Amino acid sequence: MAREGKRIRSAREGIEPTKLYTIDEAIKLVKSKATAKFDETVEISMNLGVDPRHADQMVRGVCNLPNGSGRTVRVAVFARGAKADDAKAAGADIVGAEDLLEIVQGGKIEFDRCIATPDLMPLVGRLGKVLGPRGLMPNPKVGTVTMDVKGAVAAAKGGAVEFRVEKAGIVHAGIGKVSFDEQKLVENIKAFADAVSKAKPSGSKGTYIQRIAVTSTMGPGVKVEPASVLTA
Fold first, then answer.
1. Does the reported pTM lie above 0.85?
2. How many whole angstroms separate alpha carbon 128 and alpha carbon 134?
3. Which CATH architecture has domain 18-69+159-228?
4. Is 37 exposed, middle or buried (0-12, 13-18, 19+ CB in 10 A)?
5. Is Ribonucleoprotein found in the keyword set (predicted)?
6. What is the pLDDT of residues 174-226, one digit of tens each?
């Protein structure tokens, strides 16, 4: 077993590994332990009582963080005509149809979010094997297949975070930067947890949200008392 380095041991000092902290306490700890030379991302992980191998236990959705994510999100939009103009006006980084298809098929994927109008989904469908594994395939369930491309681009640029449960039943996402005020991080976390809570699938039995932890990019994880995050 590899030995822990001095930095890791130091970062864990003052954090009780078995204690469940309130979200306010946890965020204070995360910010105090973020010592990297860059603005680290604050991340949340939620263990859910679901088995995503079953269709009726899949968890997927989108959350509009009230204080943004702190990320610069590059957005690509598949659209034509007036909708393409709307996308450009809203600040989309790449807009196109067949020409954008060729760019992506050529392996050039310089975007973090992909949006498409419904009429272009047959075209975008050809890119399933390219976009799917990267989590970039447009989907109406998370608002990325829509005629309101202006609104979708604005949401993506403004801090909309998509989430999807992994095989182990875990949902995780970046919800801000350590440079954010503590209260803004708490508000973002509560908004994200609320979105995940509302996405509870019909097949989930027993306790849905089982464990929550927060961390920064290079920092240690801090366990959180779920009741301090979830709204009544």
1. no
2. 10
3. 2-Layer Sandwich (3.30)
4. exposed
5. yes
6. 999 999 999 999 999 999 999 999 999 998 888 999 999 999 999 999 999 99
